[in-house]
Structures are given as C-alpha cells and as structure tokens.
Design brief:
This protein is of the alpha+beta class. Helix content is about 55%, strand content about 15%. The protein starts with a helix and ends with a helix.
C-alpha cells in the first residue's frame, strides 16, 4: 500500500525532530548546564595583576597592545598567592602563543611544540601547569611568543583550581553554543531527509540536498569553534584540521542551492564555475599541505578567496534571475527572491568585513572568519525559510495529487480499481510477459447476475447495494492472491500473477463459493447474490498474451452465466 506523500514527510520530520530533542536533552544534562559538582578547591583567579619587567600593567586579552610586544614576544610577571591549596593546578587558555612558565627561575611548564601542517596553534590551547603549596608567594614568569603575526595573541581564564572543575565549568559555560551547533547539524540532516522525500514525489525544485550539506558543514565548524570537543578529547590538531576542512567545503553547496532557488537561465554554467573554483581551492590546499608542508592557517586565504568567489557567483545568479524576470513581472521576481537577496547581501557584507579585518588589522584578529561564519548561518537560515515555504506548497500539492490519483484510478462505488487502472496493470503485465520477467498469469472474468432485475424491482439504490455485496465478495476471495478491478457496470476482472497459480486460484475459488453462500443469507429483496466466473491461463491462450487470455476467460464466464441462469427459477 502506498503511503501518502504528506504522511511520508510527516514521518521523516518527526524522526529528525526526535533526534534534535535527544541531542538537546543530552546537551542540557546537568553535567553541562546544571550546577557543577561540589569543589574541594576554591578558584583563585589570576586574570589581573600581571605586569611587564618595568611594571607596566598587562591586559591578557590584548597582549599585542603592549609597547614592547613584538613578533619575538614578551615576558610578563605576577606573584603567586600566598595560600595555594593542595590538589590545585595553574590552568589557563592561550591563543596564538608559544610559552614557557617559570616559578622564580625554575621552568615548570612549556608549550613550544614543533609546528606541523595539521596543528591549529593559533586556536585555543588548554595549559595545565603543576602547582604545590610550596610554590606560594613565588614569582610566576611567562615568556610569550606569538605563532602568527596576523592573529591576536591572548591569555584567557588564568586561574588556580582543580583540573576537573575547570573542564566542567568550561563545558558548562559553552554548553548552549555546543547544543546549538549539534542541533544545527541535525537540522541539516532533516533537510536532506526532506529532500529525499520530496524527490520521491517529484516535487523537489530547490536543491535541499546542497542546503542540508552546507548546514551540516557549518554546524561541524561551529562545534569545532567552541573548543569543547578539543578540551574533552585532547585531539586539538585533528579537530582543528576538521574545522578548516568544513569551512573549505561550505561554499560550493551554497552556490548549488542558490542556483536551484533563483534558477537563472545558465545556472548549470554557474554551478560548473563554482565546482571548478572549489576543486581548484581544495587541490591547491592539498598541494600546499602535502608537498610544501604549509600548515592550515597558511591556507586560510585560499578559503577566503573561495568564499568571495562563490559569493560573487551567487550575486551574478541572483542578478541574472531578476533581469530575466523583468519581461514578465519585476515586482513578482523581487518578492519571490527577497529572502535570497537579503541573505546574500548579509553574507557578502560579512565575508568582506572578515577579509578586510584579516588583511589590514594592525593587532591581528582572534577569529579570522567571525563575520563570515555568522553571515553563512544567516544566509542559510534565510534560504532554509524560503525552502520550507516552498516545501509546504509541494506537500500540499502532493497530497492533492494523491487524492486526484485515488479518484482517477478508483471506482467510487466499490473502491476497486477502475477501467483505467486495469488498463495500466494489463500493459505492465503484458510487458513483463514479453520480456520474460513473468512466466504466466491467470485472468478471472466475473459478471454479476440478475442486476437488471434488482434495479427494475427494487430501484437503483438496491442495485448499488447488490453490486457492493458482489464487489466485497470478489475482493475478500480473490484480493488475497490477485488484484481486482471493476471493468464495467456489472463486470469485474481479477489478475493473478507469479508462481503456483493453480493452487492459489483453487484457494480463491473456494473462498469465493463460501462467500457466496454467506451472502445468500442477506438477499436484496428476494434476489440472492449470483456471480458468473470464467478463468484462463495466459499459457493456454492463443497467442500467449494477456489480451487473448482475457478473451478466453470472458467466453468461459458467459458459458457459466448461461448455465447458472438455466438452473435458476426466477
């Protein structure tokens, strides 16, 4: 039985909605958003009180503003508290920094790894330095050196606390953003599921597969930006590379979706151009990474160039689509594409802002794609709204089409397939017999006796009840093994195909006789139900076609009809 289009879509959306709820629940677990576990160590914040060697105060979130700060780095000082509890560590986050930590003149910790292509050294790194009560009152000295000249170096959340408490508090404080990112990923999967369902019913004009893919990639990227997974797993290099890759692959699906949405005349050429640009950027990034050993940060301008190029392609597509619509109705075109135009404008401004800040900032930036990320989210969200609106229209059309199809191929009185449906089935079976997919089939021709007498004596309403009794009897008997159709006023046709035809026909015939006996207990007036039947195998007809078998079954049915009338006393 075919599931209606609206039901299939409802099932798909309900499934993905359940996934979203599960992710939201898991992310909102008390471990993440609730009250942290009781601490045995009181946090001691060390965010303030740092100075340079000459006593100049230091702002840890803007180290590059120090007068003596250079690409060679700087050194900052702070005296440790006089009361350091046991089981505590010196913990802090660093961005774009290599560092060495000293207590007085003793080096106790260093983050100065040999750079590799996959390392995301300018991103957040979590530092855990050993600390004991004996270190109380010592002078802490941090020797800092920036990794990249165009990324702002910073120190964040400098404190003395338990490592487990610090990790839990960090995850809790970033739980909402993490939940938002995970839900975004599942929304992307939901959109892909919607695309699959709409394609099944041939009502998918927008490329929701591309939109869903872009949203998934942006959700992954956002997850990586929270640094929560890096903190929990410790796989900072791998997840940093995933952050770069997700951003690198985002632009092309955005172009594909925009093309399907505005659909300019030469949309295939625009998609091809975007594919060439995306492939070129990916190949160039791979060459720099694998052959020349460039790290991911060095390839970031390639990603920015791809974002701007694909944004330009989308702009051209939108303009082309609007211009092509001028001849008909420019106002209707603008209304139709207003979300795409506004979303694209926001994305373009964000991408340009990132490019300008990244290129011309004197003090560097802590997030080289901050605006582009949010611009892409806004753009995708607005496109998703557009797609959702059109999808609702498609769903309504599909549901209406299902109703029309049901009316077109179903007999209103008996709810069986009508003559049109029988002709379609006949052609399909004939084709299967011709190409050898089907070896044999049985055709049953049935005709209801005494219908005219019922109509003339008791009226057409009684005649309809009489026909319904006949249809129910045929459906209960032959519908188990075959497909039943009403092909005339009082004529019915059944097709049984496949293997073990004689055995299956025998079972249907037995049920048919039993059902006729049951119907005789409830006659219409004084007329009990009587149905003539004739059957024929395709293999016994000449030629071996369904049409010939139907003709043979019809002849046998009329012979049975004459015999039944001769035996019956009116």
């Amino acid at each position: 039985m075919k599931v209606p289009a609206r039901s299939r879509i409802s099932i798909a959306l309900a499934f993905f909605a359940a996934l979203v709820v599960c992710v939201a629940y898991l992310t909102a677990h008390p471990y993440l958003l609730g009250v942290p576990n009781p601490k045995t160590v009181q946090d001691l914040s060390l965010d303030e009180g740092w100075t340079t060697a000459d006593g100049t105060p230091v702002f840890l979130d803007d180290l590059r503003s120090l007068p003596d700060f250079s690409d060679g780095g700087t050194t900052i000082f702070r005296r440790l508290p006089n009361n350091i509890p046991a089981q505590a560590d010196f913990i802090f986050e660093s961005e774009n920094l290599m560092l060495h930590l000293f207590y007085d003149d003793e080096e106790v910790y260093a983050f100065d790894p040999e750079r590799s292509p996959t390392d995301n050294l300018y991103a957040t790194h979590f530092n855990y330095a050993p600390l004991t009560p004996e270190d109380a009152g010592k002078m802490a000295r941090l020797e800092l050196r920036p990794v990249y000249g165009n990324i702002a170096p910073r120190l964040l959340d400098v404190c003395i606390t338990e490592t487990s408490a610090f990790m839990q508090e960090y995850v809790r404080s970033h739980g909402f953003v993490l939940a938002e990112s995970l839900i975004t990923i599942f929304i992307g999967f939901a959109i892909i599921g919607l695309d699959i369902v709409l394609r099944e019913i041939d009502h998918s004009e927008s490329d929701l597969l591309a939109l869903g893919s872009a949203i998934i990639l942006m959700g992954i990227w956002s997850c990586m930006v929270t640094e929560v997974l890096q903190l929990i797993s410790g796989a900072g290099a791998l997840l940093g590379a995933l952050e770069y890759m997700s951003l690198l692959f985002v632009p092309y699906p955005i172009v594909c979706f925009a093309s399907s949405l505005v659909h300019p005349r030469n949309w295939r050429r625009y998609n091809l151009a975007a594919r060439v640009i995306a492939t070129g950027c990916i190949v160039l990034t791979a060459i720099l990474f694998l052959v020349f050993g460039a790290d991911m940060h060095a390839t970031l301008p390639i990603t920015h160039a791809q974002l701007l190029s694909c944004a330009a392609i989308v702009a051209i597509e939108v303009v082309a689509a609007v211009r092509e619509s001028v001849r008909t109705d420019i106002r209707a075109a603008l209304v139709s594409h207003n979300f795409a135009l506004l979303g694209f404008l926001i994305f373009m401004l964000c991408a340009v802002a990132d490019f300008v800040v990244f290129t011309f900032s004197k003090h560097g930036v802590s997030d080289s794609a901050f605006f582009a990320r949010h611009g892409l989210f806004v753009f995708s969200a607005m496109l998703a709204v557009e797609a959702a609106g059109k999808s609702v229209t498609y769903i309504d059309r599909a549901a209406y089409a299902d109703k029309i199809e049901l009316i077109a191929y179903t007999d209103a009185l008996t709810n069986m397939g009508n003559t049109t449906a029988w002709k379609i089935m006949r052609d399909e079976v004939e084709a299967a017999l011709t190409d050898g997919t089907l070896n044999d089939a049985i055709v049953c021709q049935l005709d209801v006796n005494f219908l005219k007498k019922v109509n003339d004596t008791y009226g057409h309403a009684a005649g309809d009840r009489y026909l319904k009794h006949a249809a129910n009897t045929i459906q209960r008997s032959f519908g188990i093994e075959g497909t039943c159709y009403r092909t005339g006023g009082d004529e019915f046709t059944v097709i049984i195909a496949g293997d073990d035809l004689d055995e299956r026909l025998e079972g249907c015939t037995h049920l048919f006789e039993v059902s006729l006996d049951e119907q005789s207990a409830t006659p219409v007036g004084d007329v009990t139900l009587s149905v003539a039947i004739g059957t024929a195998h395709v293999s016994e007809a000449e030629p071996h076609t369904l049409h010939a078998a139907q003709k043979l079954a019809d002849e046998r049915m009329y012979a049975n009809k004459r015999a039944m009338k001769a035996e019956r006393v009116d």
